[in-house]
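If your schedule permits, I should be very grateful for your opinion on a structural question. I have a record of one protein: its chain in single-letter code and its fold written as C-alpha cells. Would you kindly read the sequence against the C-alpha cells and tell me how you understand this chain to fold? Thank you for your consideration; the sequence and its C-alpha cells are set out here.


***
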Amino acid sequence: MFKKILILTTFFLFSVITFAQNNKFLAVGNVKIVRQEPLAIKREDLNITIEKDNTIKVESFYNFENVGNYNVKSTFLFWLDSNIEKVEKEDFSNKNTNNRGKYINNIKFFSDYKKSQNLRAVIKFDENIYKNQNGEDIQREWFAISKTIEPNKEGKLYLSYDLKNIDFLRTKNFTYSFDLVNNFLNKNKAEIFYVNIYNKSAKKIKNIDYKNYEFKNISTNKNKEHFELLVGNVNLDDKMIINFY
C-alpha cells in the first residue's frame, strides 16, 4: 500500500512539474487599436512596479488626439501571451482550464476618468515568436474597451493591472511588448513617452533594454530602485525587457 502511495505521489509531483514547465508567462502587450484610425498619440506614461511579493503592477496613461474629420469609435486593447499545455481533446465547458486569472488580476480601464467595463477574448496560435519559448502553442488573451473621440478632440485612457506567477525570479527578465500593428498615426509615434520603473523586490535590476535608450537610475532608497526614461517622438514598437541579476 505504501509503495502504491509513493508511486502515485511521485506521478502527481511529476505531473505538476511538467504542467508548470509547459505553462509559462511570455509577455504582456501595450495598448493598441483594432483598425487604423486618424489618432495621434500625444503622450503615454507607463509605470511598472515590481513589488516585494514579486507581483508586477502596471499602470498606463494615454492621451490621444483625433486629427480626422469624423468621430472615431475604436476598440482599445492590450494582450497577454503564455505557453499552454497541449491537450488531445479541447474542453469547451465553462471550467477554469485555460489559465484564466493565472497571470493577471485587477484589470481597470478608465476612459476620460470614467470607469469602463473591459471585454476579454482568447485565441491560440502555433508560432515560434519567442526565443525562449517552450513549445509552439501560444495562448493570447485580449482585454479591450471601446471609446469614441470626436474630431479635433483629445481623449484620455487609463489602464492598470497586476501580474502574478510570471516567474521572473527564475527567468531573470520581464518582457513588456509594443509589437503588434501600426494603427495609430506615423507608426504609433508618441510625441511624449515617459516611463518609470520601480523595483521593491529582492532581485536587483541589471539593465533595461528598449531601443538603445538609456534609463536613468534615480534611486534614492536602497530598498527601492527607480529608473526613468523621458523621450519624444518615439515609435512605440519592439519589446522592452527588464533584466535582473
The longest strand covers residues 137-149. The two ends are 46 Å apart (CA to CA). The chain is about 10% helix and 50% strand.
